[in-house]
Amino acid sequence: MRKVADILRKAGFRAVLALAAPLAGGLSAHAQGLPAVTAGKPGDKLLVEADELIYDNDHGTVTARGNAELHYGPRTLQADRVRYDRTSGRVFAEGNVRLTEADGGVVTGARMELTDDFKTGFVDAFRGQQTVQRKFETVRTRFSAPRAERLNGGQTSFESGSYTACEPCKDNPETPPLWQIKAKKIIHDNETHTVYFDDSTLEIAGIPVAYLPYFEAPDPTVKRKTGFLTPRFITTTALGNGVSLPYFINLAPNYDLTVTPTLLSRQGLLAQGEFRQRIDNGFYNIRLSGISQTTPSAFLPSPLGAGERDFRGSVESQGRFYINPRWRTGWDLVGVTDKWFLDNYRIRNQNITTDYFREATSTAYLIGQGDRSWFEARGYYFKGLSSFDWQKQQPIVAPVIDYDKRVNGPSEIGGEVRFQANITSLTRETTQYQGLPRTSSYLFSPSVNGVSFPLYQTCTVFQRGLCAIDGLAGTNTRASAELSWRRSFIDDWGQKFTPFAYLRTDAFFTNPSFSGYQNDLAPQVAKIDDGFAGRVMPAIGLDYRYPFVANFGALGVHTLEPIGQIIARPSETRIGRLPNEDAQSLVFDDTSLFEWDKFSGYDRVEGGVRTNLGGQYSVVTPSGWYANVLFGESIQLAGVNSFRRGDIANTGLDSGLETQRSDFVGRFQVSPNQNITFISRARFNQADFHVARFETGVTARFAPFAPLTLSAFYSYYEAQPLLGYSHYREGVTASATYNITPNWFVSGSLLVDLTHYLDVRNTYTDALSSYLANPIGTVPIYQNPGRFYLSGASFGGGYQDECTTVSLNYINSPIATATGVRERNQTVLLRVELKTLGEADLRQNVGTATTADGIASVR
User: Fold this and answer.
1) Cα 781 from chain centroid?
2) 3 state DSSP class of 520
3) CB 542 within 8 A of CB 565
4) By the 8 A CB rule, do 486 and 498 touch?
5) Torsion angle of alpha carbons 331, 334, 335, 337, nearest 10°?
6) Do 836 and 165 touch, CB atoms closer than 8 A?
7) 3-state secondary structure of 834
8) Cα(41)–Cα(829) distance, rounded to whole angstroms?
9) Of 233, 232, 235, which is closest to residue 845 (Cα–Cα)?
């Protein structure tokens, strides 16, 4: 038989041997292309391929030499030389041994001794790799040991083994990986998908940094497994030192429970639990937190903190359900015993906004979407989380219903017909006032340790022009509907005519509250309707555009487009007599110049005959260079100018639209390529052309030429005393990320307030006036913060590769105290993630502040 194999090898064929497992009779070899000989069940064959096969019938062995491959089911064994012992059913492989598992895992070694099904045996100089493909990434883990033992394919035991998820160094494979776990013994259980470590040490770049006598972790194939999660450490003045140890319980494939006890040296045990469940058409979760405080005095007394509370806690829930392909429903809920709890105990929640104020938003919704239609019904509850938020001024909004439907117009008129409807109802307990300009008047000023904390800003004088109402107490309901039509025509000269028309109707049901707190002062500020009020606004208009296009080849396509728009409608009625909750945000710039109605919400509606005039010029070159310039103004031709008469919130005044001829607005944008954009937009006073509003900035992503991403913006807004801003506002914001290498990066952001010194000066002036009128306490001292005030900043950097993420960030954010002084909250955040093992965060306040939200001092 050896001779047959030699002839086949010389002829360029590989010998193939099909063996029954276990081997029961004679053997047969055949070259590729010759019929295969089968024995036993098809699933039980051991197939041997090699350049040369040697049979020893005396000793009952078969030896394969030269690129030997043995296949048993989904497993494959490759080596320079393989010897199969028919008597014992053992396979001995030597030289570049490589075993590929059914799941794609790869084991290499210098020598292997295995059973003929490759499930049990020993491996010398073991090297193993397990690959798992997840949704957004591929995870590879690696084991190594001088000797490993495989037991029935279910367990692998490594003596003096190591484990890591890091790729070996290509240039020097013997270099220690960035991190690895070395243990006296490692056991990988393929049935429970668990890795056990005994007498283990964590090494970073080959240096031991932590010792654990025993621990276990799921292998990367596991998505959910009962066990402890990464601990979290806490250190604060009010809480003391503490550690959280989450425990995850995999109750079923579709639901689980995480219990997180947190032991705090100053406050006791904080208990947290989260239940999650996924059902056929969605998911929901419920999270509970609670603590019976041992040192409530660590927090400020009411109304500045929860110093009188023993028990504090929260309940949070989220749900998402897909009823069918067009309809979905869900909720996001947050409930707390007090508004400081989540922040004091550093409980994270995605429904909390923290940019310039802290607020938790609870909402429930039903959404439907058709091919050209949209329906949404929601309810909102807003919970202020700052000492200076008065919950009685926060509205409960339910329901908010929106419907939007577009259809093709009738054949007689063509075009597009659109129907929009909105119903909004809200209830507020206390009217929210705003002094004009902003004043230092507050509802009351509690004192703690000799420090005064003025709370809940209000008006000094309650009369129109010196006070505005941002939110009206009582119940206010509005139902609105709008039917519109438009159609575009292009004539032979290229002129584009778009006639349009719409009919808007609004019904207001207003029940204001004029009792309690300062609610009875609202009639001194505005004459507000009580009961039912209606409003109808029909309009017709025409939008005209005449683009002139010229193609200059390499110099690009140039387009000059004059634009004219005229809208005829009656004057707006009941201005200043109705609530305004959703139309207070009015910004007149290039984006709103040609809007039919420039108000942002339904509570206001633009009236009168108005024309919007302007033009734009754009260039697009073959190389991708793009530039655009737009300039225009809006002119009130007849009727009452809706922006000249402010409502109860003074919306429309100081907007640039309050005069017959509006301010000029413009935009300039340049994009040398798709990665870089420069943009400037401005509003110029109509009378003398001075800049009333200016924004300019750049966004750039230089990759792949340079690993840099940045954005920088400068903003300037002139004083708007009728909206509460007595002086101009100016600031700069910038952020950047630079990838030093494919793994190392640095990032940072800045927010510079260039007019903060004016706020400080105004606060000092008001405080000095109050002191001179009633000289009690200490004399106010003026401290100039300087022209460039760093309102907020963050700097950091880190390292990220296939197995490790490490980031270190410094965050400097202001604390807006009730006295108007901004103190600093300085935090260092360290995050370390060792892929497949877990992650850990360490957050530490650095420096000190005399006050914090709900806490006497922080560190």
Assistant:
1) 42
2) helix
3) yes
4) yes
5) 180
6) yes
7) strand
8) 61
9) 235
pLDDT at 44: 54
**How big is the chain by its Cα radius of gyration, in Å?**
37
Structure tokens at 788: 């460039």
Category of 203 on φ-ψ map: left (φ > 0), alpha (ψ -120 to 50) or beta: beta
- Contact of 189 with 196, CB cutoff 8 Å: yes
Token pair 């497994």 is at which residue? 225
Helix (H, G, I), strand (E, B), or coil: what is residue 242?
A: strand
CA angle at 722 for the pair 716 and 725, rounded to the nearest 5°: 40
Residue 7 CA to residue 31 CA, distance in Å, equals 10
Residue 292 to residues 244, 268, 313, 847, Cα–Cα distance (Å): 16, 7, 9, 29
Partnered with residue 311 across adjacent β-strands are: 292
- Structure-token pair, residue 575: 């201005």
Q: If you search the block for the tokens 């067009």, which residue do you land on?
A: 326
pLDDT at 38: 31
Strand bridging mode 138-151 / 29-31: unpaired
| CA pair distance 704, 698, nearest whole angstrom | 18
With contact defined as beta carbons under 8 Å apart, do 456 and 443 qualify? yes
Q: What sign for the dihedral angle of Cα 466, 471, 472, 477?
A: positive
pLDDT along the chain (859 residues), means of 10: 41 50 36 30 66 82 85 84 84 86 79 80 83 71 86 80 84 83 88 86 87 82 80 83 91 94 95 95 96 91 87 95 96 93 81 64 96 96 87 95 96 94 97 85 78 83 92 96 97 95 97 92 92 96 96 93 97 94 94 96 96 97 94 97 93 95 97 93 95 96 81 96 91 93 91 87 75 74 81 90 88 60 70 81 66 59
Beta pairing partners, 631: 615, 666
Eight-class DSSP state of 99? E
Residues whose CB is less than 8 angstroms from the CB of residue 153 and which lie 6 or more positions away in sequence, other chains included:
117, 118, 119, 120, 190
Helix-, strand-, coil-residue percentages of the chain, each rounded to 5: 5, 55, 35
Alpha-carbon distances, residue 98 vs 90, 95, 396, 573 (angstroms): 16, 9, 67, 84
Q: Which residues contact 560 (CB under 8 A, 6 or more apart)?
A: 547, 548, 615, 617
How many other C-beta atoms are found inside a 10 Å radius of the C-beta of residue 252? Answer: 9
Question: CB-based burial of residue 401 (10 Å sphere; 0-12 exposed, 13-18 middle, 19+ buried)?
Answer: middle
Contact 564, 594 (CB under 8 A): no
* The pLDDT of residue 848: 56
pTM above 0.90, yes or no: no
Question: Could you give the CA distance from residue 141 to residue 157 in angstroms, rounded to a whole number?
Answer: 16
**How many residues are listed for the chain in this entry?**
859
Say how far apart CA 836 and CA 239 lie, in whole Å.
Answer: 31
Pairwise CA distance, residues 362 & 668, whole Å? 40
Would strands 282-292 and 311-324 be described as parallel, antiparallel, or unpaired? antiparallel
Query: What tokens does 819 get?
Result: 């006295």
Output the pLDDT for position 27: 34
Whole-angstrom Cα distance, residue 676 to residue 700? 4
pLDDT at residue number 766: 72
Name every residue whose Cβ is closer than 8 Å to that of residue 403 and which is 6 or more positions away in sequence: 373, 374, 375, 376, 419, 420, 421, 422
Strand 442-444 and strand 467-471: pairing?
A: unpaired
- Backbone φ, ψ for residue 613 (5° rounding): -120, 145
**249: left (phi > 0), else alpha (psi -120 to 50), else beta?**
beta
